[in-house]
Structures are given as C-alpha cells and as structure tokens.
Design brief:
alpha+beta, Arc Repressor Mutant, subunit A, Dna Ligase, domain 1, 2 domains, three-stranded antiparallel beta sheet, three-stranded mixed beta sheet, 6 strands, globular, transcription cis-regulatory region binding, cytoplasm, DNA-binding transcription factor activity, Ferric uptake regulation protein
Length: 149
C-alpha cells in the first residue's frame, strides 16, 4: 500500500464518501491513482503515474491509468492540464466551482484559482458571439513566487 499523509488520507476518505453518495464505483486501482496524485504536489503525466503504479502493480498498463483518469475527471476529482497533457488533483472536489490554473514552467507547480468574474466574462463573451462552450480550460504559464526567488 502507498504510505499516506494525513491530507492524502483525508482526501481519499472524502472521495470515498462522495462516490458512495453518487453511487459510483471507486475501485482499488482508481483509489491508487487518486492517492498517487494526492501525494504529488505538481502536475503529473499519465505515464509518470503508470511508472509509479507499476511499483505496486507490476502488470499495470496504460489503459488502466487512462480509464482511472477518465473516471477521476468525470467525477471532478482532478483537472486536466490541456497544454501539457498532465493532471492535478483538485482538493475542492465535491463542490461546483470555476477553475483557472496558474502553471509554473520551472517547478511544475500549479495554483488553482476560483474566480467567478473570469468565468462570467468568458461566458458573456462566448454568448456575444453565439458560441456554446462545451469545455473550459483557463491556463496561464509563468514562474511561481518560489522559483522567482
């Protein structure tokens, strides 16, 4: 089993409870991927997750990870970082919220913002152009405060 920090353990418990409420299957593999992401403080690719999972499940293959990631995305547990095809755990899962991501090019860290004004402005601009938004990903790339020091 993966050693867990208190925060990872709390996140897992919350996710388990939410899955019970939603009547969806939070399989052991899905939980393992969730925990790997909960212990990772930066964006992570599916193949990096696969490499970590294979330390515990040597027969794990890419489709296993991608299916788990699809589930975690669908349930709102993670965000996909489109520009780098990576993923990050969303500690605010279970609550509907706007999300914008600040991505550090140096350390790979991600700061998640929840600005409703950005969300409303984007929707308003889309409406003005008769555009129906089906997927929203707002990403800004730069250097975080820690890396700039």
């Amino acid at each position: 089993m993966i050693p867990m920090t208190d925060s990872a353990n709390n996140l897992l418990y919350r996710a388990q409870q939410l899955c019970v409420t939603r009547a969806v299957r939070f399989t052991p593999i899905r939980q393992q991927i969730f925990l790997l992401m909960a212990q990772h403080n930066a964006m992570i690719s599916a193949y990096d997750l696969l490499a970590q999972l294979q330390l515990l499940e040597p027969n794990a293959k890419p489709p296993t990870v991608y299916r788990a990631l699809d589930f975690l995305l669908e349930e709102g547990f993670i965000h996909k970082i489109e520009s780098s095809n990576a993923f990050i755990l969303c500690p605010h899962f279970g609550e509907k919220h706007p999300s914008q991501l600040l991505l550090c090019k140096s350390c790979g860290g991600v700061i998640e913002l929840h600005n409703t004004e950005i969300e409303e402005l984007l929707q308003s601009l889309a409406d003005e152009h008769g555009f129906a938004i089906t997927t929203k990903t707002v990403e800004a790339h730069g250097i975080c405060a820690d890396c700039r020091e």
